[in-house]
Amino acid sequence: MSRRVVSCMLSLMMVVACAVAAVPGAQAATDEQTLSVDESTAVVSDTSGYHFKATITNNGDTPWSEGNLALYLNAMYTFTSRTDMQEWAQEENAIPATDELGSAHVPAIAAGQSATVTIDAPADNAALKRISSWGPKPLLAAYTHDDETVHLRSFLTRSRDGLDNAATPAMQITMVMPLASSHWQANNETLDSLVKGKTATRNQNEQTDERDDNAVTLDADHTRLDRTFSDTLSKHSQLQTVADPTYLNALAVPPQVTAVMQPAAFDITAYAAGGDAQSYTDAGLAATAWNSDAALAQYRKALGDDKATTATIAWQGEGRWTSKALAEARRQGYTTVISTYDFESSDTGTVHTGTNVVSTEAGDVTVLVEQRELSNLAKGKATDEHAQAESTEAGRLARFVAQSAFYQMEQPYTQRNLLVCFDTNANAITIDRFMSAVEASSWLEITDLNTLAATTPYATGEQAQANIPQETGLSDKQTKAVADALSTLSAARASIIRFRDSIISNDDKQSDDAQALARQDANKTSEYPRDAWIEQMLNVHDTLALHAMAGNDADGAIASAMLAGANHLSSTLLNGIALTPSETVTMLSETASMPVTVSNGTPYPVEVCVSSISDSPEIATSRRTTVTVPAHAEAQVTFSLRAATSGKATATITLEDHDGNQFGQPQKTTINCVLKISDMTGFAIVAIAVAFGLLGLWRQFHRKKDPDE
CATH for 221-471? Predict the structure, then answer.
């Protein structure tokens, strides 16, 4: 049988396989038979050829015999609609793919094992040469073994290079990377040092507010921008970066960025949805901590340049950009916001420029809306769970390129600028692959954020108002998480204020550490050094609170770490005033004394009330006594004990502030009472006993005797 006949038979088999997807021996990749794309040429030109690498995994219970992997293409096909493309990706239509790109032998695969196969088609491959028009083409990978065929559908996109097709204007596209981190941690060592007034970990020449940053740090693996990531940013100069300025400040060497977002990626959408600004203020989150002025101040601090300037753009949080959220962003100085999803309705209309200009009660806001399908692919999300090839990054990239080409072909002479956003956690390899593919796509023109914002908006006025989401988009679980976090932060901050107002002594004497701290805090405009110390703790708390309300914290990891840090700070402060456990007290008389020691681990004197109460009515203690405890020292108070009888009791000793409210950990002391004859009562009892004894003797000698005696 000739090779030509064999080729024709194989082509016919592939046509049948595409037309009847459900027949035995022609099935999609499943849990037991997996075919996934590892690498593929994103943009094919007249000189590139085509490279394809796949992994075949046997998740079944039986081994597979040797097989074959073949790649097929429909070189002449042109997709007519986005529905047409989606149905191909989901194996819901029958498009014949009969142009063979190449094949490769697949070794036998044992159960639970995998094999990697590569197919390379040179630039002069017959199937590639047959392509006469640019754009996306159906690509089919077919793996045959043991009389069964597993197939996977993807896309091959041909550029205009080397084709006679008429050139049309390139479609503009703006690629944006948010630079923020989800690896924030609360530094308990710094928090403890602050409470104790220790300064050993701090350079004498550092500015006071730098201690705020030391309390909230990136974990050890993220304090420096990854070298590969840095190289990627340098390599793709047209990539737009919108950075959290606190993240820049935490990096050893901050990169150049296009703009900055709200500090700590503060969730403005959740703030507006709650409608309770006071709860945020109570938690230490006044608007001055996250508005555009704060963003610019943090940016200047990161660069060490008080005159540096850049654009400020509010990034979307967990909720949607409702009218209230947009108005709040505008009120806080953000005239431009980026909407990462759910701003416009999901319809089947042609793609358009991602710019809306919305009028709010605080002024106009330019909303830059990402293109949903392209952005989802760049963020690692498949267009549909049934699009099997898009389960890997290579498959998603192939779809991204194909989809963008189709969008340009859909309206080749309409000016549009599409916004594509990467995920916050996108790695350098992902960014490099997508940016390289966009740069190689002749139908795309990369622009910057300024160009996008200045492009004729897609919607203004009433049309823009109609695009605004009506619902916040926050689930009940998310809303509760925000409320719980604010409650925790408010309680922690209130504890610090309580310490300031009701525990710390008015006596401004301080330890050597506190004096050093005061000298370093000389720029604080406080009447007393202790006020600067308290102010510093409040600032640290507020920094923790700011990060706790980040809008890029889908799994709640940042909030959990920051709330734990805030609780640690407040509890360490209050527990810095502690009762030293007392030994058991033994009473040998009606009265005794019980000494209690109070320690102060803070750098300033405190004045507290020590309260004691017994659980026995027969053994009582005096109730309260006030004591001033010097900085980093101890003081002792004495309680009077009085017993009416022998027995055992437990005295509970607690600390109270100036308002009589308890704080800290209570202590319990056992009191054993063994009364002895050692006081006036004892003597009286003895005297009476002696008198009765003498009376008995007198009667014994003076009574009238019986005659028989």
Answer: 3.20.20
Residue that has been written with the tokens 């989606």 in this structure: 86
Q: Give per-residue pLDDT as tens, 363-409.
A: 999 999 999 999 999 999 999 999 999 999 999 999 999 999 999 99
Q: Which CATH superfamily is domain 577-680 in?
A: Immunoglobulins (2.60.40.10)
How many Å from the N-terminal Cα to the C-terminal Cα in the chain? Answer: 154
Instruction: Tell me the pLDDT tens digit for each residue of 534-585.
Output: 999 999 999 999 999 999 998 999 999 999 999 999 999 999 999 988 889 9
CA–CA dist 50, 265 (Å, integer)? 41
Report the distance separating Cα 202 and Cα 138, nearest Å.
Answer: 62
Q: Which amino acid is at 680?
A: M
Distance CA 410, CA 592 (A): 96
Q: Order of strands across the sheet with 135-145?
A: 27-28, 148-158, 135-145, 67-73, 99-106
Q: Is 660 left (phi over 0), alpha (psi -120 to 50) or beta?
A: left
The helix/strand count (H/E) of the chain reads as 21, 29
Cα–Cα distances in Å, from 702 out to 688, 693, 699?
21, 15, 5
Based on the number of CB atoms within 10 Å of its own CB, is 519 exposed (0-12), middle (13-18) or buried (19 or more)?
Answer: exposed
> Would you give the DSSP letter of residue 371?
P
Domains 3-167 and 577-680 share a fold: yes
Digit-coded pLDDT (tens) for 45-95: 999 999 999 999 999 899 999 999 999 999 999 999 999 999 999 999 999
Q: Which residue has the tokens 């159960």?
A: 111
267-to-59, 92, 280, 319, 479 alpha-carbon distances in Å: 43, 40, 12, 8, 12
**Which of the 8 DSSP states describes residue 57?**
E
**Structure-token pair, residue 350:** 């042609």
Q: What is the pLDDT of residues 606-618, one digit of tens each?
A: 999 999 999 988 8
* Spatial separation of the C-alpha atoms in residues 262 and 246, rounded to whole Å: 9
Residue boundaries of the structural domains of the chain: 3-167, 221-471, 477-574, 577-680
Q: pLDDT tens across 154-213, in order? A: 999 999 999 988 889 999 999 999 999 989 999 999 999 999 987 533 433 343 344 455
Quickly name the fold that domain 3-167 has. Immunoglobulin-like (2.60.40)
Pairing of strands 50-58, 33-40: antiparallel
- The first and second tokens of residue 690, run together, are 């002696």
How would DSSP label each residue in 181-239?
Answer: -S-EEE-HHHHHHHHHT--TTS-TTS-TTHHHHHHEEE-GGGSS--HHHHHHHHH-TT-
DSSP state of 413: T
